[in-house]
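Q: Hi! First time doing this. I have a protein sequence and I read that you can turn it into a structure. Is that right? Here it is:
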Amino acid sequence: MANLDLNLNLLATLDVLLSEGSVNRTAARFGVSQAAISVQLAKLRGHFGDEIFVPRGRRLVTTPFAETLREPVRELIEQARQVIGLRQGFDPATTERDFHVHAGDIDAILLLSHVIRGLHSVAPNIRLYIHGSVAAPSMIDFFIRPVGLHTPEFSSCVLYTDHYCVLADAGHPALADSISAPDYLAASHIVRHAGHTGAPSFEAATMARLGHARKVGQVVEHYGSIPPMLVGTRYLTTVPTYFARQMAESFPLKFVSLPFEFPGQTILLQWHPHLVGDMAANWLRTFIVESAIELYASESAGELFVG
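A: Yes, that's right. Below is the predicted 3D structure, encoded as structure tokens:
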């Protein structure tokens, strides 16, 4: 093994390489050339006596040894940031930090867009990387996800609770101020199933549990793709009410209440344990909660969730 000094800058590069899986994207994150990152990768390979990344087709994949480094390197970098923050203090107006956030498409469209507009004014150098899927959960700082899909061992607080409604073209003949259960079940629906697994969404799984058999007309992966598909058609869809309200302002659509009892869904903000004591992360967590309060007028936002 080469006798090289493994300084904090090299470890920071390794942390980003492991999260990005790309020399090009890592170079972009640091604002340096690809050649500069390649030099640092060569030093890391020499120190550890491992390739760290190996080619597979047209992409690079981490070696088994590199996978064992992912969590301890991330924790070490976060601990170093905490130490530096304790000495320097925290000012959102000047702090430069990157945070990785996992969220579904509705929360990315509504809540996180609201968060980013706010950050643009008060913390312009805090950058969010928003992920719709998690290949490596250890790289994620914050998770926005519903109760039932959360990680019980991570700290959590409530962001909001929303209820579901029916969304359709504004001229849909079955919708006036309401829709009947027979008309709802007889119509063709656009439904969301998540990811390559085809796992049902919360509303699809709940419909099945309640025994409501809808006629599935089309299936999509993201809620955000549904509204324009409804325009000029006789499809229905079932989505969270706040999302429906926003989409009805952007498209010629209308929304009405479901014709039967249906539970609401509570959305949580969770944070990785490596953020404990991180002043910038604590500030951002509060900022996200306050953004949820502004957006949803949620009285429960910020309450710790246990369970």
